[in-house]
Write a structure and sequence with these properties.
Layout: H1 10-15, E1 24-35, E2 47-61, E3 66-71, E4 82-86, H2 87-90, H3 100-107, H4 113-127, E5 138-144, H5 154-169, H6 176-190
Parallel strand pairs: 3-5
Antiparallel strand pairs: 1-2, 2-5, 3-4
Helix pairs in contact: 4-5, 4-6, 5-6
Length: about 200
């Protein structure tokens, strides 16, 4: 992809996608809470502002039936910023996706929060019937400028960029409310954050 304002992470993200097919890249900004924080789920009014720092996610189809996720560098001091599992295992063998609890058990508790966020976004898109045609496998690579910033919406930015990149790779147009619902489920069920 080419934009007037390319992400400084795009080159690193693309280096980790080594297949022959096209790569689909999306990015999403972090946000600054000026007022209200995450109290939106209680009906409070918010005043948020997007930041210049963002996350960048790249997706590429594979041919070996694997689902692989890699962070281009360590995120927030977390370990195990990579994941490689059989796509049939992750989809539960029937294409409907595992529950969050089953998938976390599959990938292990040592997997980083960011990798769980990316994997969770994929599974939730499948579970909602918004994604098909991924049976041959997927590679996902990501990087972030939000790791050192607390309360900058890094999880939401990573989930939304992943959803958009996956949709692009599958030639699917997601409605904004569909993307928001998938991201909410990822934060609630995969990351344990009670956002609205």
């Amino acid at each position: 992809t080419t934009t007037a304002d390319p992400s400084p992470f795009t080159e690193d993200v693309l280096k980790h996608l080594t297949g022959d097919g096209p790569c689909y890249v999306a990015r999403a900004p972090g946000r600054l809470d000026l007022l209200g924080g995450s109290s939106d789920y209680t009906g409070s009014l918010l005043l948020n502002m997007p930041l210049g720092q963002h996350v960048c996610v790249g997706v590429q189809h594979r041919t070996d039936g694997k689902f692989e996720v890699a962070c281009t560098r360590a995120t927030g001091g977390e370990h195990n910023g990579q994941l490689s599992v059989s796509l049939s295992e992750l989809s539960g063998g029937h294409g409907n996706g595992l529950s969050a609890e089953q998938a976390v058990a599959l990938v292990g508790t040592s997997t980083s929060r960011a990798v769980r966020c990316v994997g969770g976004t994929f599974v939730e898109l499948v579970r909602q019937g918004l994604l098909a045609g991924h049976e041959n496998g997927l590679s996902i690579s990501f990087d972030s400028g939000l790791d050192e910033l607390s309360d900058a919406g890094a999880d939401a930015a990573l989930a939304s960029a992943t959803a958009v990149a996956l949709a692009g790779a599958h030639e699917v147009t997601l409605k904004p409310v569909e993307t928001a619902e998938v991201c909410r489920r990822v934060e609630n069920e995969w990351l344990g954050v009670p956002v609205g």
